[in-house]
Amino acid sequence: MLSDLIAAIATAPGRSALSVVRLSGRDAFVAARRVLGWDQDPSILPRRAILATFHESDGTPIDRGLVTFFPGPGSYTGEDLVEFSCHGGFLVPGQLVAALHAAGARPAAPGEFTRRAVLNGKLDLIQAEAVGDLVDATTRAQGRGALRQLDGGLSRRLADLREQLVDLLALLSYDIDFPEEDDGPVDREAIQSLLGAVRAGIDNLLGTAHLGERVRRGALVVLAGRPNAGKSSLFNALLRVERALVTEEPGTTRDTIEADLDLDGWPVRLADTAGLRDSTDRIERLGVAVSRRYLAAADLTLLCVEAGRPLDDEETVLAAAGATIVVRTKADLHPGADGLLVSATTGAGLPGLVRAVVDRLFGDIERFADLEPMLTRERHRVALTDADRELVEAIPHLDGDGDAVLGAHHVRRAVAALDELIGVVDIEEVLGAIFERFCVGK
Ligand SMILES: Nc1nc2c(ncn2[C@@H]2O[C@H](COP(=O)(O)OP(=O)(O)OP(=O)(O)O)[C@@H](O)[C@H]2O)c(=O)[nH]1
Ligand SMILES: [Mg+2]
Prior knowledge:
This protein has about 450 residues and is α/β, with parallel strands linked by helices. The protein has helices spanning about 30-35, 90-100, 110-120, 125-135, 140-150, 155-175, 190-215, 230-240, 280-295, 315-320, 350-370, 380-395, 405-420, 430-435, and strands spanning about 5-10, 20-25, 50-55, 60-70, 80-85, 105, 220-225, 255-265, 265-270, 300-305, 325-330, 340. The protein is flat.
């Protein structure tokens, strides 16, 4: 099915050597030919770049570049699609899009190309999300994860689970339709073990959600500790730029400062906080309250304590809390002290700290990733939790005395939850939520 014709610039705006403009939908080739000034179809070779001149509707040349025709369904969107490579910058791509609009296309909405790819079965929803994640990725780990998801690993795993549930439904309907069959009732143990297998599969996937979401969004690492402990200095050293103010005066940092950081290929959001102490200064007190909120939300806390100084009571409590690494700061001033020693001044110990942080946050991934594709979004987690809840509700109805009709009803709802997740049912609403965050031309 070909839908109305859309056009948009697919590359980022601004000065650049090249830019790509996409055109997709009904009569895409007709509109393209008008812009190319071709009266008729000079035997288009699918998926081959052709050197051509692009024109405004009055015939004025805009640029000379490459044009590639992708006849549907063998295109990204599944429709007839044309890609123009033109020179970048502010003028040419805009003129080219305007010419395509004059030739009958309308501006594409954000994510509309990928949305069409989903509607035409070229990608499922999980893969479409991965397209967005790959474009948004800033670290190697995020890129790897998105690519694996785009490759269909998670989709296949979910489709397997769905298929097992459909098998289960078939067994149940047989039981409902032919309860008195001579063969005897459907084997209850087979039903229970199939259900158990699906629940175990769901459980394994849910076990990956925590890390998958952490990789996609970046882990929140909070620098905390007493005033003057060297938090802001460490923040700057890790960022390799003087971002936060540093002074010898305790209580320098008031507002929490955040920065995205690529730690050895892993995504981290690093936060520098106000030093923890009871202060009479109103503004500093507000800052400390914010620090505590960050501490509560942290995936990992780096508790900064000057080397050689024993931990006080509050630090001892914080150090014992789950995800905390005690970092011994200003090591250059305290040679021979114990612990994870770092010096923001000399840079000593920083590589070891980075390794420790990455290992604590992401160390489990290698173990997981080989076994299961990972869930990367709350949407995935919620859908699988819903599916599992339905299966739990089905259990009491699936033994010999239960109501198989009711059991089947719950299993069907579990299938529906998976369908919505993969995107095989009426998904307009889900699509809307996913694609509104895409950029135009994707
Ligand atoms: N010699 C040495 N001095 C350091 C080091 N790190 C920080 N300092 C000094 O310690 C003082 C406090 O550093 P900050 O980074 O501002 O400490 P902070 O923990 O952010 O302090 P507040 O924002 O007040 O909570 C400054 O005078 C820094 O120059 C270090 O590794 N070595
Ligand atoms: Mg500070």
